[in-house]
Design a protein that fits this description.
With 469 residues, the protein is an alpha/beta fold. The protein contains 20 helices and 11 strands. The protein has a 6-stranded parallel beta sheet. Strands 8-7-9-10-11 form a 5-stranded parallel beta sheet, with helices on both faces. The radius of gyration is 23 Å and the shape is globular. The structure holds 2-acetamido-2-deoxy-beta-D-glucopyranose (6 copies).
Length: 469
């Protein structure tokens, strides 16, 4: 009932203040409060003693979070079946019910309270409240090319038939985003109610199409497509493109918007190549997307005490001066696994047996190494200036990673050895908490990479109202 009330408050909440609940809502609200208090008391009394809590198994901790985002039933879940009826008009196949997401969110709150962690967020409470507004209200319209399979460039627009194909590699996030969006509860077929418009072309698919392939042809194609939708539909002209967005991941996409002025100046680019020095990246307008490799789901993490190497890094040293310097300084250090060229052990093992994993700028600032480190529970050490880290307005990266200026790389080992055991463990806890933000699911799950990215769009809603004047 409460949920139905929230939904009815309208799909454009940014335009008005909060209205007060009417008297007939007070009873259900009170019931909800009582239920929440009972749940919290139960959770607290069933916790282990603080002494034991200190020795909590960190792999358990990770599992708890896994559970909280899966589809377990709970009391709170039963309160809200309403929002699904609202979704009846969407084209999305089997969206994940909002009620289920709220249920798992409630569990996360209990977890945070009971473990007394300020956690890896700038402000979890504010974020969570606004995020839930987003779940209920954000609407995205997808241009119909994504559903048309008989046009000549259909493959450029259709969702990838197998986004998990390991051959996709660095482009995985681009395909995973589109697939997740189409399976989410945010898609609407009623363009009039949409906050945003998705242009469903795939840079990776163009790269693999011999008719396009080159950087030049790709940017021509993208410009033509933008002109096409702006003449066939009224939405582009209404905002000058400011409420339109597209996704791309990895180098070839960086120039895609270069042949269309409004596309690169006004539309939102959701991109893995989110660094301040990229010519076509505009921070605050554009959105940083985590670059993720398709990795098998991996539930058990190697705990801190089983990580006996200080550092892991593997990557081509010739890609940057700074990598060369790191190799020259510590290539032979027995405490550190630092390699250029072939490894003598599996790549994953490097992440599993080290406390810290280096992310050192090569040709590009972004690589999948950051998400790999997060995936395998290795604290990321980021040595790549000007990287607009994904979700940095929500996540406080200093709570679960170490950021070192390229100028200070000579002090790398000293800096890492000076981190106290307590601080390391806190970072490790926080790293476990942020793992869910660096994963893709089909259909998407609450707080995963898709919904975190959608939240970035939510923060940019309404700007088009200014630009259309
Ligand atoms: C941590 O969990 C793992 C897997 O469940 C178990 O094998 C191990 O004994 C646990 N360690 C501690 C200290 O409880
Ligand atoms: C929670 O953590 C803060 C800061 O570390 C500490 O001051 C406070 O005493 C803790 N509260 C509880 C209930 O453990
Ligand atoms: C594609 O299919 C639609 C309906 O299925 C049809 O209306 C349209 O003419 C077809 N286009 C081409 C180029 O065959
Ligand atoms: C949008 O503007 C362009 C350029 O001014 C124009 O060619 C196009 O017809 C307009 N689109 C619509 C739907 O009116
Ligand atoms: C590392 O070891 C190799 C082989 O022993 C040697 O050639 C190289 O100079 C050493 N590098 C450093 C930085 O000490
Ligand atoms: C590294 O591995 C690749 C493929 O496994 C192989 O082709 C190459 O020769 C190896 N390089 C060295 C220096 O061993």
């Amino acid at each position: 009932m409460v949920l139905r009330y929230l939904v009815r408050r309208g799909s454009r909440p940014q335009q008005g203040g909060r209205s007060r609940p009417s008297p007939q809502l007070l009873v259900p609200l009170l019931l909800l409060c009582v239920l929440m208090v009972v749940t919290v008391v139960f959770e607290i009394t069933s916790r282990v003693e603080p002494q034991q809590q200190q020795h909590r198994n960190l792999t358990r901790l990770e599992l708890e979070l896994e559970e909280s985002t899966s589809s377990r039933s709970s009391n709170i879940k039963d309160l809200g079946a309403a929002p699904q009826t609202k979704r009846a008009t969407t084209r999305a196949p089997a969206p994940v019910p909002v009620a289920r997401q709220l249920a798992s969110d409630a569990k996360d709150n209990n977890w945070q309270r009971n473990n007394n962690l300020s956690g890896p967020y700038h402000n979890w409470r504010l974020f969570k409240a606004d995020y839930q507004e987003m779940l209920h209200n954000l609407r995205i319209y997808v241009y119909p090319d994504v559903f048309i399979n008989n046009q000549s460039f259909a493959r450029v627009f259709l969702p990838h038939p197998n986004p998990k194909d390991p051959k996709i590699g660095n482009y995985f996030s681009e395909h995973a985003f589109k697939t997740a969006l189409l399976g989410s509860s945010l898609v609407t077929s009623r363009a009039e109610e949409a906050h945003f418009f998705f242009m469903p072309f795939s840079i990776n698919a163009m790269r693999n199409d011999p008719r396009l392939h080159s950087v030049k042809s790709i940017s021509d194609f993208v410009a033509q497509y933008t002109n096409r939708i702006s003449s066939e539909f009224k939405f582009w002209n209404a905002s000058g493109g400011a409420d339109h967005f597209y996704a791309c991941c990895h180098s070839i996409g960086r120039e895609a918007a270069s042949k269309h002025h409004d596309l690169h100046n006004s539309a939102i680019q959701i991109t893995c190549s989110s660094s301040y020095f990229q010519r076509l990246f505009i921070s605050h307008k554009d959105v940083g997307l985590p670059q993720v490799w398709p990795r098998p789901p991996h539930q058990l993490l190697n705990p801190p005490h089983a990580r006996n190497k200080l550092v892991f890094f593997a990557g081509r040293k010739q890609n940057s001066r700074i990598r060369e310097k790191i190799l020259a300084s510590w290539g032979n250090d027995t405490l550190m696994d630092i390699f250029s060229g072939n490894l003598s052990f599996p790549y994953e093992e490097g992440f599993q047996r080290s406390k810290y994993c280096l992310h050192v700028k090569g040709y590009e600032v972004n690589t999948a190494r950051v998400s790999d480190a997060i995936h395998y529970g290795c604290i990321p050490v980021i040595i790549s200036n000007y990287y607009d880290l994904p979700f940095a307005n929500v996540l406080d990266w200093s709570k679960f990673s170490i950021i070192i200026s390229e100028e200070d790389v000579a002090f790398l080992k000293k800096i890492l050895l000076s981190v106290s055991r307590q601080r390391y463990l806190t970072m490790y806890h926080n790293l476990c908490l942020v793992r869910r933000h660096f994963r893709w699911h089909t259909p998407p799950r609450s707080y995963d990479s898709f919904y975190m990215t959608a939240y970035q769009l939510w923060l940019r809603r309404g700007l088009q109202l200014l630009s259309s004047n």
